[in-house]
Amino acid sequence: MKHTLFALLLFTLMTAVHPQTTDSVTVVAGAEYSMGGFGRFFLGDQWREVWATPVRVPVLDLKTFAGGLIPEKRGGGMQTKTLHFKGKDGQKWKFRSLNKFPEVTLPPDVQDTYVADYIKDQISGSHPVAPLVLTPFMDSLGILNAPPTLWFMPDDPILGEFREEYKNLTGTMEVNPDDEKEAPFANAEKVVSTEKLIFRLMDKREEKVDGAAFLTARLFDVWVNDWDRHMGQWNWAKYTVNGQEIWRPVPKDRDRAFSKFDGFLPWASTLMIPQWKSFGFDFEPVEFATWSGRYLDKRFLSELTRQEWDSVTNFVVARLTDELIDTALSRFPNEYKAASVAGIREKLISRRDKLPAFSDEFFRHINSVVDIFASDKDDRVDITRTDTSTIVTVSGIKKKEIRVLYRKEFPGDLTEDIRIHLADGDDKVVIRGEVDSGPLIRIDGGKGDDSLIDSSKVRGWFLNFLPIPRAENKNRFYDDSPTTSVIWGPGTNFFLQDWQAPKDTLELLEPTMLEHGRGYGVYPVIDIGSTLGVQIGGGPIITNYDFRKRPWDSWMAFYASYATWTKDYDVDFIGHFRSIIEGTTVTFKAYRKAVDFNNYYGFGNHTTFDYDLYIDGNYRIMRRAIGGEVGINIPWSHGYSNYFNLRLLDLDVGLPNSSLLQGYREGNYGVGRLSLLTLSTGIIFDDRDHAELPLSGWYMKAGGSITPKVFNARDIFWSANFDLRGYLPLGFIENSAFAVRFMGEKVGGVYPFHMAAFLGGSKSLRGYRGERFSGDASLYGTAEVRIELGSVKTIIWSKLGIFLFTEAGRVFRNGEESDLWHTSNGIGAYLSFLDRGIIVSGTAGISREQFNLFVDTAVNF
Questions:
Q1: What's the N-to-C CA distance of the chain in angstroms?
Q2: In terms of C-beta distances under 8 Å and separation of at least 24 residues, what long-range contacts does 350-356 make, across chains too?
């Protein structure tokens, strides 16, 4: 690998720049992206051919361009090397490198790793000079823009302190939109960033964004597959039109147009990163195609009516003619045309023809879950429900004068959720109208003394289906002020919540945690141990998001796994839901299990183990369980929560060696078919610093269960249990801790033998096989030292740690006298990725009976 990189570097140095004349050079924009067929299968063809093609580029004359350029500061801060200049023509200019350097933007755990190499290589998926051909399109559509031109940055003393970093770079020069008085950009009165615009609009509520102009720009973004249109990719220019101050978008940094993700790994990445989608003949689903710009879309497009939206769409489609496409693509450098023009042209024509259908879906997407933002002043919101629509009017109140700021009629067959975000000021919300159905309306009260008057009613039925009239709770008001005035209606919900908005501006305006929509993932099952052999499997994860449900509203996983030693399988469903009962998490489980309990060694603290009998299968138990559970977790304050659970379990148990039950007082109770109903409850306290690899804090769980005499249970039985864990940081070794755990269980009544208290396996007595000891009660304790050794480079940087443990435990059987404690000791290692977000551990435990090995995706506790 090192020899390959050296040869590639040498090739780059030899071929990247070939001086031709004093005013032009021939360059290779990205020789490092050249790759053979095998590499292209995994990493994609992308635009590698273009990146590796020599192209003739004019040399930028810093003395004469724009009357002479003076370098001022570095810019960008992301992947592109950007240098800002002041021109003697009065304009601000910026030079942007063609090649990108994503390594500087990566978190420390990823820098200088194989993942970093992969991310750098994927720059090949962007066309190096795509921005050059976009100007004719934007000019035709009336989109404000700063046309880029291609240049080679010379090794010139004028660069001063920036000389070493920017000399011999190939890039583009373009005007940096500004409101300089000497030469204002596009005759604008003012030019600001998106962040400044949003906060300005909250204060100066009479100013508006030109929604039609923004929609035009967004349809163009999607048409050329310029997917990276987040908040930082826009400036905004202010104009006064007929007395109305409006802001028009100025898109910038269009490096991602025509992007490709066409190799195996890039394709796999698109499944995990929503906005990574290839430029093709068809559009991606609207949610993914607009992903990076979704927050601005929701903020600035919701007021457009269907008629206005369709008018913009028709205008855009009509302007994107075949002739315009040919004119624009002719701006590619001659050397790049063979590898670029034909494929891009065919796809642009196909996408243009399909743009009306996409735009229709885009309108539906924007208007299904709607966000409306008020100002920091005193605002009034009037909401009228009708049988066919919901009308929302936001007005400014100033000295008893009311001025309409926003008005939209949302169709009843489209809009599901309207979210109105009030800010500072003393705001008033009035909701009226009686209807059969309508969207959910949420009012985020923000700060100030607000008032809600709700006289509306959405007729409904008890539990949504019983023929008993009951108004639906379709109006939800969230505020943190106890002085808020609420006049309740039949469908009013009021939530007095001390909601803390993010302090980070970027997180406030473009939050990483979603509040609507759905996400998908993969749930892996990987377990390697001396008892099960290899257990492997997995399945899909579906995550739903909703308003103020952090980090999610519901989380569901469906997965299956197979164990090589038992030659059997498990199937599981688990779902957590946080909106069924407000303020709680309701959990549903359904499963078929046959893997996790496969040996039984007898009852009591003095059972013996014989390896030959084990190999012959004398301890084998066939236990297949089909079950379902419903539970509820109620969080309190300061880390406390309560849980309640109901479980229905159907068991089919076979135990060939019935002599193992000789010490069990209930005979063979538990063998054969058995159905049980169990109720359990308990309390949890958790103030650990991290759930997966804790290094400080405490965890405590205490609970109990009862199984009544129903179905074919012989009699009632119960259990009580506790689990106490503590973590003490080792001050003299960073990220290390001394950890202890004590737990116990007591089972009483007439219970099946496999419902006893058990010890042994990867979670207790790691030097013994799973479920090695069973009794009426159990006690267990362990002490563990966890020491972080340092960073190691795997796929990404990870933290390598080791742990040493000693543990002891025993079970109790009524009538058995015993002072025997079973002990084991061991050592293990773990790799922690992404700040303890992912853990892989290996454990070796040894006891007087055997030596155990476990590999898991967690530490023991």
A1: 40
A2: 350/281, 350/282, 351/223, 351/281, 351/282, 351/283, 352/223, 352/317, 352/320, 352/325, 354/282, 354/283, 355/219, 355/222, 355/223, 355/313, 355/316, 355/317, 355/320, 356/313, 356/314, 356/317
- Are 62 and 80 in the same domain? yes
Say whether both 321 and 239 belong to one domain: yes
Q: In the numeric block, which tokens belong to residue 450? A: 């607000």
User: What tokens does 547 get?
Assistant: 């308003």
Spatial contact of 797 and 743, defined as CB atoms under 8 Å apart: no
Distance of CA 84 to the CA centre of its chain: 34
pLDDT tens digits, residue range 22-66?
A: 699 999 999 999 999 889 999 999 999 999 999 999 999 999 999
**Do 174 and 31 share a structural domain?**
yes
pLDDT confidence band for 398 (50 / 70 / 90): confident
Asked whether residue 387 is assigned to any structural domain, the reply reads: yes
| Pair 192, 215 in one domain | yes
Cβ pair 856, 831 in contact under 8 A: no
Q: Whats the size of the chain, residue-wise?
A: 861
Starting at the edge strand that comes first in sequence, how are the strands of the sheet with 244-251 ordered?
190-193, 234-241, 244-251, 208-209
Task: State how far Cα 423 lies from the chain centre.
Answer: 27
Going by their DSSP bridges, the two strands 417-421 and 369-373 should be labelled as parallel
Range of the domain at 459: 374-509
pLDDT, mean over the chain: 91
Q: What is the mean pLDDT of residues 448-477?
A: 75
Tens digit of each residue's pLDDT (9 = 90 or more) over 810-833:
999 998 999 999 999 999 999 999
Of 488, 509, 530, the residue that ends a domain is 509
For residue 108, pLDDT beyond 90: no
Domain membership flag for residue 861: no
Query: How are beta strands 434-435 and 401-411 bridged, if at all?
Result: unpaired
**Domain termination site, one of 368, 395, 415:** 368
| pTM for this entry | 0.87
- Residue 627's CATH number: 2.40.160.50
The residues facing 108 across adjacent strands are: none
Q: What is the pLDDT of residues 315-333, one digit of tens each?
A: 999 999 999 999 999 999 9
Strand blocks (E) in 600-716: 622-635, 640-654, 672-686, 697-707
pLDDT for residue 160 is more than 90: yes
Query: What string of DSSP letters covers 75-86?
Result: E--SSEEEEEEE
Q: Which pLDDT belongs to residue 807? A: 98
Residue 480 token pair? 């943190």
Residue 451 lies in a domain: yes
The Cα 253–Cα 49 span in angstroms is 23
Q: What share of the chain is helix, strand, coil (3-state, %, to 5)?
A: 25, 40, 35
Query: Which residue's structure tokens are 């100033």?
Result: 398
Quick one: angle between helices 130-141 and 211-223, nearest 10? 140
Pick the closest to residue 585 from 684, 678, 511, 499 (CA basis): 684
Check whether 372 has a pLDDT greater than 90: yes
